[in-house]
Amino acid sequence: MMRWAASFISARAEGSVIEAPAVAGALAEQGYVVLRGAVPADWLPGLQAAFEAGVRPSDAWPVPRGADWRHAMVDLDPLVRAACCLPALIAAARHLLAEPFFLAQVEGRAPCPGNAPQPLHRDAAGMAGRIVNAMIWLDRYDATNGATCLVPGSHRAAVGDGGTPITLVGEAGDILVFDPDLLHGATTNTSGAPRRALLLLYVAESLRAAQRATEQLRGVRMATEEVFGG
Fold it and tell me: In a structure prediction context, what are the per-residue pLDDT tens digits for the chain, which is 230 residues long?
């Protein structure tokens, strides 16, 4: 039975093989999958350091960011780029994309203590098969420090907006991959514990021109020429 268990799949960096049918089934049925332990443990201090070094105030971004979140420019860091290309992550993204794709954006975000909860929303409604979102957690996350909440199956018309939200719980090094039509948001960081994450956007090659036109507004500095799934 794949329904719930397959949404949380071990991807331990020590070399275990992720079963493609389980990942594909979770993404199709629930609209998301959490790859547990996908980031090598010895990478985490470097990724956390890259996040801290990249933190910029709201008005330092091309478009000002929300003041109750910390935002980090990390896309030029080589370890961050390596994390965005982890085989388990790329393989999961490939299940949701109908054509070759590229990494269009990566940045760091962390809710400040007492942040306003982020309402449930869809990142790119109607763009299934052309856009994939992912999140690499750099700290332990749960309902006390602003973890992501989502509505399983809400990417499907049969569920729509009527499903019950759940709040994800896990450890640093987990990766969330999700459909652009999936309803999701963020809870309030009531504990004050850090909840840093990298937010990634993979985009179909056919949308490259549109993405390039908005790179400056989105604060993208990195090269985006590498293509996956070709």
Answer: 223 334 555 555 433 345 677 888 899 999 999 999 999 999 999 999 999 999 999 999 999 998 999 999 999 999 999 999 999 999 999 999 989 999 999 999 999 999 999 999 999 888 889 999 999 999 999 999 999 999 999 998 777 777 899 999 999 999 999 999 999 999 999 999 999 999 999 999 999 999 999 999 999 999 999 999 86
Tokens of 136: 């690499």
Q: Do residues 210 and 131 make contact, with C-beta atoms less than 8 angstroms apart?
A: no
pTM for this predicted structure: 0.91
Tokens of 130: 């052309």
Angle, helices 87-96 vs 20-30, to 10°: value is 50
